[in-house]
Amino acid sequence: MIRVQEAPFDAGTEQQALLAGRTDIGAVVSFTGLVRDFNEHPEVSALTLEHYPGMTESALEAIVEDARGRWSLDAVTVIHRVGRLTPGDPIVLVVVASAHRRAAFEACDFIMDYLKTRAHFWKKEHAGDGDYWVSERDSDHSDARRWEA
Amino acid sequence: MSLTHLNARGEAHMVDVADKPESRREASASGRIRMRPETLTLLADGGLPKGDVLATARIAGIQAAKRTHELIPLCHALSLSKVAVDFHLDEAESCVTVTATCRLNGRTGVEMEALTAVSVACLTLYDMCKAVDKSMEIGAIQLDTKRGGKSGDYRRDAAAPRPAPIVTGEGQAGEVSLGSRCDVATPCIRVKCLAELRERLGVGEVAVELDSLESFDVAGLKAALKALDPRFSRLDEGRVLCAVNQVMASDTTPVTNEDEVAFFPPVTGG
After folding, report:
1. How far apart are CA B189 and CA B208, in angstroms?
2. pTM here?
3. What residues of B are in contact with residue A1 (Cβ under 8 Å)?
4. Is B11 exposed, middle or buried (0-12, 13-18, 19+ CB in 10 A)?
5. Quick check: B26 and B102 in contact, CB under 8 A?
6. Cβ–Cβ below 8 Å for A49 and B270
7. pLDDT tens per residue, range A115-131
8. Over chain A, what is the mean pLDDT?
9. CA-CA distance, B115 to B68, in Å (whole number)?
10. Cα(B76)–Cα(B110) distance, rounded to whole angstroms?
């Protein structure tokens, strides 16, 4: 399941929903990304996330489909928030369920690496010394390239 | 427009596709089964006597897509490369929406396969739930999108407005105002600039007349934009990505009337 939403989410509720009624799942890995109060500048007071409706969802779907081709997965949930968020807020959730732990760990890692470099979201940070758009990071791209070998 | 399943004498016949070129074909269809709210709750909780309803209906839909030619008289037997069946449980409408997508590289379209998958998945849902609810109603089975082939792409309600991007701020002072809507009579391309690029250029949406393009591709569009306003020279500064109709594109990607072209900076989500 893939959702792009302004509302907050609860990682526990989403994980329960993913596992409801299933007894064939042996491992579930959940990653939650949070808004930090420091990034390119110190004292980030808020950030605003923009996306490209339609294309964002298809990019996320393609990433999940790619993961399903690489590992045997039973269920995947990806939720990404947009709009204005403040430090401590959950911003992204990836939950991956599989029969065995290795696939769940690796697929969750993979989905986050690809999400950061391929899904159509843009962050603007509001800091003490002004607003600025976050730049792309080389480290995100090298993380994503790990899966191409 | 003629019906290709009728020959010159008006008799039904199977179309010979041997000489048609192979191309990538894709079709998506959807349908809906309405039920009582209690039934939907049971379905969601896995409390129905026949077991896992959605998994069974999904397999039924996939099987049905593969056997479409056995059911629909003039359909060709196809080796589908992909069949995906998905369900959305809508509590507000008390219904389950079924969607199916079929794909292959071949000589015939796959709309019938997608529609058959949806129909049979709906029937299976009915069968799995009928012990507790006989009043369920199947409806709104329709083709949503189709790609590839001689008759071209199709999208239901192509004119329906898409939700606007969530914008994070207005353009800078002195915004370029070039009009954002296509005149019905004039073929044109709708251009969107997103995120930082929108703020840097001071323009979010603009319509460009197709006739103002020297070449009908993204490079031609960029040149036309620069002729409209020199600010668009910033499209060449730094890394600016481009999508045509929401698919990643390059300077050589062709553009045509009614296309939506978006320019945006590298993504920074997560």
Report:
1. 5
2. 0.58
3. none
4. exposed
5. yes
6. no
7. 999 999 999 999 887 88
8. 95
9. 9
10. 10
